[in-house]
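Following up on my earlier thread - several people asked me to post the actual chain instead of describing it. Fair enough. Here it is, all 426 residues.
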Amino acid sequence: MANKDRQVSRRGFFSSLLRDAARLAWATDEEKGGRNEVDPILADFESLPIVSTYPWELFEDEAKRMGIDYEKIGKVEAIKRIIAYQMKHSPPDAETGNDNVNPQFRSSVHVDPVTDICAVLDTVFRIVIPSESARKMFSIKGISEKCSGHPGWYLWFEDKPGAYLLELVEAESHEAESGEHALDHISGYFQIKYYPDVLDTRLFETFSLSEQVTRKSSLFDTSGTPVFDADSEMHESLFATGRLDVSISTKENRVEFTLSAPDHWITWHSRGYKITDQRGVEREVLSPGEIDRNVPSWELSWWVFDRLISAFCYAKRAAPAVVAVFSKPGRAFEVNGNHVVAKETKKQSVTELISVVLFTLKEEVEEQERFDFDRYVVSLQARELLKQAALIELQPGWPSGDAGWINDRWWHFGQEEIVRENIGPC
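Reply from S.P.:
Thanks for posting it. Predicted structure:
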């Protein structure tokens, strides 16, 4: 998990969205041959999606900070003034008359890469969720944005009794080696969590005793997910199954997804585990060294990863350029009473698996054909995560069928017709 000072706040996330809204407004005005003046751009502000897409609460703090009396002028006018403030403080370069967005504004847009990383999935959800046929295609029951702590989404599926959480833990931008503050790529990672259904006994009992007790407590509501602001009551490691890294290459227009998880996530308590019952009597429920958690983490993580990649292919009309799967020796974890890892131990019975899926989103065929497949695979194997890992599956281009942890339908979803019935702001 990220340090406290590197955690991303919900307010920071939506502040970046405001900056992007301002940037898009400038771009729209330029396409119409406008003069980059704020007032004309905002004349039809009420029709912009941001007014109806995001709840008022997300703008309230900013309005208070700016001293806007929203009770007097109305919420729509308040949001309009917030956007205008962003635009007026970072307009296109007036001195040179350059129509391009100036460096100051461009840097302000990318100050927080959280927006860019979240947008990779958010844009997919905004196409899939409003479409009944798309939801049915991927068996999606519902998606709900997280309302506290790290940004992320809860996901429910028709064919999975539990619920998933994708929670952004860290995001950062990387400058190109050439310097001059040129942006090379943006990266971030999500923690994948699975909240098992208590009636799914076989799977439920593979989670730790602490997770089982927590899952049955009042910290969870009838949807099978934590109640609002329950993050502060639960340790961050509870219900974790895997990690999803997302990287965006701004120069080459590539998006890369990397899933990593052990085939089984094993923990134990070296001193055993005791609980106190309702009568105040302490009893031992785990003996010293007894396994407390043995979750099939890779299977659970890849299950939702498969749906995300499928939905990405569908929404972006794309197919993977490369899929590579690696394996390496895994570890088991000794934890103390506070769920903190006290010791890591290599365990022969545990294998860590890593799946890398790369998309090249260049529209020009020539650009796609220039992709250096061999060089990319070599660069993968040089990464810290993949050192000492064995390449067990590799798929360049279209496959002839399913191969282990590679779903051949990923290459077909991009050819499915996008049905836009009832499409609107999420």
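Residues 128 and 134 are 5 Å apart (CA to CA). That should answer part of your original question.
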